[in-house]
Amino acid sequence: MLSCMSNKNRRRGFTLVELLVVIAIIGVLVGLLLPAVQAAREAARRMSCGNNFKQLGLGIHNYHAAYNQLPTHKTGTGLAMATGWDQSNLNGNCQELSMLVALTPFVEAQALWEQISNPMPGFQSMGPTPDVTTYSPWVTELPTLRCPSDPGVGSPGLARTNYAACLGDSAYSMTHGPRSNLLTLSSTAAGAARANQRGVFVPRDKAAFRDILDGLANTIMMGEIATDLGDRDTRTAAKAAGALVGGLGINPADCSTGKDNNRPQFWASGTATILDGGNAAFGRGFRWADGNPVYSTMQTISPPNSPACSTNQGIIDGSGALTSSATADKNYGLMPAGSRHQGGCHVLMGDGSVKFITDSIEAGSQSTRMVSNIEGNAGPPSTLPGSASPYGLWGALGTRAGKEVVSGDF
């Protein structure tokens, strides 16, 4: 009787098979849950990124209300030397500052603006050129300028930005605007800048909402960019692409050659980039205060997340001759928008709204030359100054007065 009761009260444990089944079920559930958690986190980061852009848009509109113009891209103090604006300078910034600098007091960075606009020990007001690492404002990273999905941080970048000014659908005149290499107003350079720089922002030239004839809601003011991680990513390590005139300017598709066949998002080992040869600090988005192409500009030529390229031409002198700048990060180039989000990137429209543009947006023919008064083409299609953008809907969204008709959602 006692033995029978003992057997009845004895608790039965799990067998090894049952335990393995339970572990397998838990593993499957975790495997199903993790992607959902990661997707939810990315959705939150993407929303935060869009909110940063909205804050920048509000800042731009408040700036315009205060000064009746947009913040100038590539602005600041004068030359302070006779060798050209493209030289590093401790005594002035050579009008190389991005539009983000003037925007700081309008995006809750008043304290940083006070440092920049007033003299600091060893520096004049508005600081040195934005490549000087000993000037603390240029190495101060602003959370408003960083997308949470972009993991890039620290050296060799100074202080990064994921948000860049839109310069339109042409690479010509994108470094000097209406000025010569000595920062003097040049009729040749001014004529070229008016014809070639068709975006909301024109380097070293004033712009206002009244100039956006295509409508604020149909024109991109800024676009998102990814910053470089040192991995030869085609979007962030700009390829050394040779000449613009007669080269990349007549066939932007050349920028896509030289990829790794097995990993097409990265350059092949034999493809030269402007980061090679001790220039690791020339990565995309590495200097928020620097108005030069790789750091704080984008164009609507190639679709989002396309490869970036830098040419060996970047300055126009008084005679209209194109020459190379002192360093490759100051030359003309093809600088598409891009992001670490899946499938596209954010853009900021002129009316302050934020749109997510997919990589598959219609962008015309990438083998069509850029609009230019230097090597225009009667077509078809025409790429003479004043022509509609040859880069489809994407190009049309980047021009302020191209008179293209944008219909439907994008």
UniProtKB/TrEMBL annotation:
<dbReference type="Pfam" id="PF07963">
    <property type="entry name" value="N_methyl"/>
</dbReference>
<dbReference type="InterPro" id="IPR012902">
    <property type="entry name" value="N_methyl_site"/>
</dbReference>
<dbReference type="InterPro" id="IPR045584">
    <property type="entry name" value="Pilin-like"/>
</dbReference>
<dbReference type="InterPro" id="IPR027558">
    <property type="entry name" value="Pre_pil_HX9DG_C"/>
</dbReference>
<feature type="domain" description="DUF1559">
    <location>
        <begin position="38"/>
        <end position="363"/>
    </location>
</feature>
<protein>
    <recommendedName>
        <fullName>DUF1559 domain-containing protein</fullName>
    </recommendedName>
</protein>
<dbReference type="InterPro" id="IPR011453">
    <property type="entry name" value="DUF1559"/>
</dbReference>
<dbReference type="Pfam" id="PF07596">
    <property type="entry name" value="SBP_bac_10"/>
</dbReference>
